[in-house]
Design goal:
Largest sheet of chain B: none
Shape of chain A: globular
Radius of gyration of chain A: 24 Å
Radius of gyration of chain B: 24 Å
Helix content of chain B: over 70%
CATH class of chain B: Mainly Alpha
Strand content of chain B: under 5%
Number of strands of chain A: 0
Distance between the termini of chain A: 7 Å
Number of domains of chain B: 1
CATH topology of chain B: MetI-like fold
Number of helices of chain A: 14
Oligomer: heterodimer
Number of strands of chain B: 0
Structural class of chain A: mainly alpha
Largest sheet of chain A: none
CATH superfamily of chain B: MetI-like
Distance between the termini of chain B: 8 Å
Largest interface: A-B, 49 and 44 residues
Strand content of chain A: under 5%
Chain lengths: 314, 308
């Protein structure tokens, strides 16, 4: 178990370093003059050069990368090129907002999706299974902005139950639902497709296994077999699927936060990318990667704890 | 579906292939393929979900090519006298903020997404096949390094990569195609690679090697035709994702630019008028919904038939 964990941790760190190089490379090497973007087309070349020098973007690439990454690790994330505010509080603040929205969606949809997936598996090949599977499949395909716009037209414009643009909710439960339900539904629809599908596949596989048949044949009640033998084994892979979906969730947040004008990390990525605000963009994308890696690590841990085959493996 | 290679007779025909028998053997393979194709078609037509999806996809492709024949108005024609008008007999889906006919724009909007998405898919499939064949066939260090890179790339939400790259490269249709194609390449490569890994152990590959064929020939002329099933499935699945992504990027303002009638773009520009003219966003969104769901139904139907 310890060896398993150490390997995973090392892999995570290596991947993060790779991602940081990738992010830095894409943002800084590909064309796009920072000073020119900020000052606009009418500034003189000298002004652009001076600003570039002030921002430090005229130094060699490797120096800038080492400077940036060491600053990042120490907690000095620099200043936003557009908003003139320190990057760290800005990014962390937006990240917290997005976590609220993402967590809200996950908490509501994960148990429901697993439940429906298991139901579909238990009714394998019958009408219920077909309906759940085809619905899930269609929902995966639906871009978040399409689902979001349809929801907005019906529930915000026609019925007026929800605000057209969402803000960070107060602690009041009614407010939480009022602000977060509409923007989280498009995310939930996509998540439902993936998670229910995995839960179904896992359960179907276990249902066909020899030990399930043995349990049935030795006369255990169906309910006991399902709870004790089937679900325990079939839901393990679902844990990893949920953690992989964290990555998807961030992508979905970009769309949903733009659509609902929610001040989260996705909107920050989009705004800073369009505005060429490199310090913000790099820090945000790297933090997204960190978050994703950590959630994967936690999922692996959980998987190891729940699965003795991994726990005792050498 | 591939020929069952555990079948002793088929193994025999392959290993015994002398130059003179090659023609006969090709004949056998062709017949086999035609027979398989017929079986394939019958199984596909038996699936209701596949049929519904196929009809809708064919309709939108037809519309994307021939929309000029049945649009009542020019999609970019501005009419200052009839802005933000609700659906009526003269404007079935209403008009937008510039008085343009939404019905005509929805019909014309299929073209852009049905150009960008297939082009991006083709690029990703071509790249993925090449990378997958090389890594799967040669294995070794190239394989290891490339697959680690793929893992690192997969750690990233597609949309974030696209936003990052498009904001730097600038927004154009061509850039959207390239970005989606490049992001798809490692994903396709992974599928192709695993198919190649299973395939390269077969006798016909060993036979080709003994004949002294080059690696290039074996990869593209021997292995590739035998993994066409999984590749076809991968292509339709990717096409669904490509439509999803291309539309989303248009919506985010990183794809096509106004006055294009593109659906994603129309939804984005209609958002400002959501409260007073919801039809501006409703109809392009519905059109897109039918297309993506239909493509996915087709992909799933194909997948089930290929896997069986």
């Amino acid at each position: 178990m310890r060896r398993f964990l150490l390997t995973r941790l090392a892999l995570t760190i290596v991947t993060l370093v790779l991602v940081s190089i990738l992010v830095f490379g894409v943002a800084e090497v590909l064309p796009g003059d920072v000073g020119r973007t900020i000052l606009g087309p009418f500034a003189s070349n000298e002004q652009v050069a001076r600003l570039n020098h002030e921002l430090g973007v005229d130094r060699p690439l490797l120096v800038r990368y080492v400077d940036w990454i060491s600053g990042f690790v120490r907690g000095d994330w620099g200043e936003s090129a557009l908003l003139n505010v320190p990057v760290r509080p800005l990014v962390l603040d937006r990240l917290a907002n997005s976590l609220i929205l993402g967590a809200f969606a996950l908490v509501l949809i994960v148990p429901f999706s697993i439940f429906m997936g298991v139901i579909a598996a238990l009714k394998y090949g019958r009408a219920t299974d077909r309906v759940i599977s085809v619905t899930g499949l269609s929902l995966i395909a639906l871009p978040e902005f399409v689902a979001g716009v349809l929801l907005l037209v019906v529930f915000a414009v026609k019925l007026g139950w929800f605000p057209v643009s969402s803000s960070v909710p107060s602690a009041n439960p009614v407010d939480i639902f009022r602000q977060l339900l509409l923007p989280s539904i498009p995310l939930m629809l996509v998540l439902f497709g993936y998670i229910s599908r995995m839960a179904r596949a896992g359960t179907v596989e276990v249902l066909q296994s020899d030990y399930t048949r043995t349990a049935m044949l030795k006369g255990l009640p169906r309910r006991t077999v399902i709870w004790r033998h089937v679900l325990r084994n079939s839901l393990l892979p679902t844990i990893s699927v949920v953690s992989v979906q964290i990555g998807y969730l961030v992508g979905g947040l970009v769309v949903v936060e733009k659509l609902f004008n929610y001040p989260g990390v996705g909107k920050l990525v989009l705004d800073s990318a369009i505005g060429h605000d490199l310090p913000v963009l790099e820090a945000t994308v790297l933090m997204i990667a960190v978050l994703y890696m950590v959630s994967n690590l936690v999922a692996d841990l959980l998987y190891g704890i729940l699965n003795p085959r991994v726990r005792f493996a050498r | 579906m591939v020929v069952d290679r555990s079948d002793p007779t088929s193994a025999l025909t392959v290993t015994d292939a002398a130059p003179g028998v090659a023609g006969l053997q090709g004949e056998f393979a062709r017949l086999g393929r035609r027979g398989r194709a017929a079986l394939f078609g019958r199984a596909l037509l038996g699936s209701k979900a596949f049929l519904v999806g196929a009809v809708i996809v064919v309709w939108w492709i037809f519309d994307a090519i021939f929309w000029r024949l049945f649009v009542p108005y020019e999609p970019t024609a501005v009419d200052p006298g009839a802005t933000l008008a609700g659906p009526s007999r003269s404007h079935l889906f209403g008009t937008d903020d510039l008085g343009r006919d939404v019905f005509s724009r929805v019909l014309a909007g299929a073209t852009s997404v049905l150009t960008v998405a297939p082009a991006a898919t083709a690029l990703g499939i071509a790249g993925g096949i090449t990378v997958g064949l090389v890594t799967g066939y040669y294995r070794g260090i190239v394989d290891n390094v490339l697959m680690r890179l793929v893992d690192a790339a997969l750690a990233f939400p597609l949309i974030i990569i696209a936003v990052l790259v498009l904001s730097v490269l600038g927004q154009s249709t061509w850039n959207v195609v390239v970005v989606i194609g490049i992001v798809f390449t490692p994903l396709v490569a992974r599928t192709v690679r695993s198919a190649v890994l299973a395939e390269r152990e077969h006798e016909y590959v060993a036979a080709a090697k003994l004949r002294g064929e080059s690696g290039l020939y074996i990869m593209f002329a021997e292995i590739l035709p035998n993994i066409s099933g999984p590749i076809a499935v991968e292509a339709t699945v990717r096409l669904g994702y490509a439509i999803f992504t291309a539309a989303t990027l248009s919506f985010l303002g990183l794809g096509l630019q106004p006055p294009s009638p593109d659906w994603g773009l129309s939804v984005a520009s209609g958002l400002a008028f959501l409260q007073i003219a919801p039809w501006m966003v409703l109809f392009p969104a519905l059109a897109l919904a039918t297309l993506v769901v239909a493509v996915n139904l087709v992909a799933d139907g194909l997948k089930q038939v290929v896997e069986e």
